[in-house]
Amino acid sequence: MKTNVKLITLENVTKKYGGETIIDSVSHTFYKGESIAFCGHNGCGKSTMLKLISGIIPISSGKLQYHEKLRFSYVPEKFAGMEIEMIDYLRGVERMEGVDPSVTDGLIEDFFLESMIHTRMDKLSKGSLQKVGVIQALMAPHQVILLDEPLSGQDADSQKVFLDKMNELRGQGVTIFMACHEEKLIDALSDRVYTIEKGMLLEMDGR
Amino acid sequence: MKNTLELFTLRRKILQKGQVLIVPVVATALFIGFMYSMAPIGVTGSFLLSAAFLYFVCVFISMTLNGKENDVFEETLMMHCDSPLNYYASREMLLITQCFGYTLILTVFPSVLYLLRGSMFIRPIGIKDVILGGLYIFLSGLCGMATGDFFHPRFLQRRKDGILGALTVSVLTICKEGLIEHFMPLVALNFVLPPFLDGFKLVGSSDIFELRGMVLIYLHMVIYTVVVTCLKVWVLEKKKFRY
């Protein structure tokens, strides 16, 4: 639920790759508790916008301001399959975040991955790997969650679990930024929808 | 600190499950087998050669690890860290422990060999040799790690450029004495290149580690490693990820 507390302000933020402008002089303020969806055609800059907001990639010009100290959780579009068993990776993240193992175990069960915990991540199917990407973000959700095509390749049951968990986090005041195409996901999760067109951020009809 | 240690443990598991270590382990085994089959050999010479060998092994390890990095995976790891410093510290810890492991092999093996077959060396090995020689090997390895890691794909973009950069530094180091002899201003190279071969100049044909001289070389190696590593971390943090 949106509040009046400013969280992140972009002032004339531009991002270029080589000579190409992906994000063009965008100025906007995002508020705590909002759930924002960015949509647009492939390659328009949705994922770039998420990463700019998190500070994980540098802006080319302009100013990005955080109104408080922020930590981000991130579900990437294509989670990387590394040469390590799923359970070893998740336990590693769990220990980094100081999370109780029962939380991780619960998420593994919720997303129907129990039978694959000893499978190497680089051997997992696309959908299963994406679920690992979701679990590592949800096991210790921070103030802001970035979702990049989070339902990609996932079965219907897992999608339902994901939506329930995200709505639970929304209720707790977590701010969500999402890049996706799926109307079902946008309708289920977002307060506001923006398209990115020719580098500009355009708000669609209010929700 | 806990965050850094846990990420280091995760990185170590990934390294162990991957196949990055096969080449350096095999190379080390071959190197030891070859070098210590040529008995009798000089005490200092064996340590200095091991140090030069470890420098190149560590350049290889650090560049291979860089090449295997996946930006998306690293981005998620960075977000699980309390601060970027924890993220970079865990990487350095991994490189340092790798270097230490190989140092142990290259230091302990000749020592054990000496105990079993004293005739291996042209003179008796003392504790001083093991300590000074072992430290020299370790610091040379760290210089190699720092050199290889400096040419990170995140700011060089093409892996070929990184390999070329590391090779250039290493070759210049090997040739620097000759270059300085012909063109004095190149003495500045002494301040920017890794000093992993300076021990050879110091020891000469004496087969003795001279303490004061060695300490100065250690200091140089530490400064090189720290400066190059800090510079690398600063550049990587400034550039962040590409996509």
Spatial sequence of strands, sheet with the most strands of chain A: 5-6-7-3-8-9
Can you tell me the residue ranges of chain B where pLDDT is under 50 for at least 5 consecutive residues? none
* Topology pattern of chain A, helix = H, strand = E: EEEHEEHHHEHEHEE
- Uncertain parts of chain A: none
In whole angstroms, the N-to-C terminal distance of chain B is 29 Å
Q: How many strands in all of chain B?
A: 0
**Helix and strand composition category of chain A:** alpha/beta
CATH class of chain A: Alpha Beta
Q: Radius of gyration of chain A from the CA trace?
A: 17 Å
Helices of chain A, by number, come to 6
Largest sheet of chain A: 6 strands, mixed
Outline of chain B, from the CA principal axes? globular
What CATH architecture label of chain A applies? Answer: 3-Layer(aba) Sandwich
- Radius of gyration of chain B over all CA atoms, rounded: 19 Å
Overall SS class of chain B: mainly alpha
- Looking at the structure, the CATH topology of chain A is Rossmann fold
Written account of the structure:
The complex is a heterodimer of chains A (207) and B (243). Chain A has helices spanning 46-54, 86-97, 101-110, 126-138, 156-171, 183-189; strands spanning 6-17, 20-31, 35-39, 61-66, 72-75, 144-148, 175-179, 192-197, 200-203. Chain A is of the alpha/beta class. Chain A has a single domain, classed as P-loop containing nucleotide triphosphate hydrolases (Rossmann fold, 3-Layer(aba) Sandwich), CATH 3.40.50. In chain A, strands 5-6-7-3-8-9 form a six-stranded mixed beta sheet. A three-stranded antiparallel beta sheet of chain A has the order 2-1-4, covered by helices on one side. Chain B is an all-alpha fold and 243 residues long. Chain B is 78% helix and 0% strand. Chain B has helices spanning 2-17, 22-35, 43-68, 71-80, 84-116, 127-150, 153-156, 159-182, 189-192, 198-203, 211-239. In chain B, α2 (22-35) packs antiparallel against α3 (43-68) and α6 (127-150) packs parallel to α11 (211-239). Chain B is globular and about 55 Å long. Classes of the chains: A alpha/beta (207), B mainly alpha (243). The A-B interface holds A 17, 47-48, 51, 54-58, 71-74, 76, 78-80, 82-85, 88-89, 92-93, 95-98, 120, 133, 136-137, 140, 142 and B 2-3, 6-7, 9-10, 13-14, 17-19, 70, 72-73, 75-76, 78-81, 238-243.
